[in-house]
Amino acid sequence: MPYYDIVFEGCNADEKTARKLGFEKIGVIPKDIMLLDLDRKKFGGEKRCIASGSAGNLSSAVSSGVAAVYLKEPIIDKSLIAKMADNSTILCISLSEITSLYGLKRSRTMLKVGRLFLYAKKKDVPVSFITAARSDSLMCSHMQMVELAKLLGADEEYARVSIGETNKMLLEI
Amino acid sequence: MKEKHRYILVESGTPVNEREREDFSFGLYNAMLHCVGEAAYHKVNPKVIKFVTEKRFLLKSTLQGSGVLIAALAMMKKVNGRDTYFYTLKTSGTIKAISSFKY
After folding, report:
1. pLDDT reported for residue A26
2. ipTM exceeds 0.85, yes or no
């Protein structure tokens, strides 16, 4: 299965690195996909983008049909998740938030993100695991992404589909 | 019963020269112990087998602990006080198969 990842501009995301890490393609924000910070800017009706922000600010974007959502704080907002399930909005989970932390802070974040993932999965929201790395040190190979997803509670097959097909969908919107 | 192993080809973010290799391996085990935890470390049982290049080395672990090892490598950002990072490039049950990795 071909795998895909999304990172920020500034990372080494060329074809050679993608092959080395086991990806078909590494998408770059904002070149391949836009990331809208709705805590800073009002939603203007864009659909081909990932909307990020706190749960309260994302609600209108999900209703308007935004493709994917990235929650800055991994808090379960039941009404937002229900809306995302109705609109088939993809929930992006950033693995660099876990790998960039250390010690107790990392453990707590893993617990929160794991709970959010399991709740979203239970409600049939498509989940995408991306590294969203801002530097080379936060990038991962596809194997590492699968294992990190498993640590968050995903089974092997779900993790592979998420990193493969769901991420591909994200890059093709 | 013979214990099954998994070999993992790892790329380090910083080069490790020949003199530093022993210290680096020890530092790697310590960092791994911190990430995996004392209770689970024996299940992973990591061991640096050999350095392929200055940046690439082969890591051996138990079959059931290889998943935890791969996840732990994604979390390790410091070895012996030096900033670094690790990419796992290929896993295999034999050293011969792993040496066919091209990239």
Report:
1. 95
2. yes
Asked if the peptide bond before residue A126 counts as cis, ω within 30 degrees of 0, the response is no
Listed by start position, the domains of chain A span 4-172
Q: Do A16 and B103 touch (CB under 8 A)?
A: yes
Distance, in Å, from the CA atom of A19 to the CA atom of A13, rounded to the nearest integer, reads 10
For A55-82, how does the pLDDT look when each residue is reduced to its tens digit (9 = 90+)?
888 888 898 888 999 998 899 999 999 9
Fold classification of B5-93 (topology level): Alpha-Beta Plaits (3.30.70)
Which residues in chain A are closer than 8 Å to B89, comparing Cβ atoms? 20-22, 141
Q: Structurally, what CATH architecture does the domain formed by A4-172 represent?
A: Alpha-Beta Barrel (3.20)
| Whole-structure pTM value | 0.94
Q: Which residues of A touch B (CB under 8 A)?
A: 16, 19-22, 95, 98-100, 102, 106, 136-141, 143-145, 147-148, 150-151
Q: CA A168 to CA A6: how far, in whole Å? A: 10
Residue B10 is which amino acid? V
In this complex, how many residue pairs, one in chain A and one in chain B, have their CB atoms less than 8 Å apart?
Answer: 52
What the block records as the tokens of A171 is: 């890059």
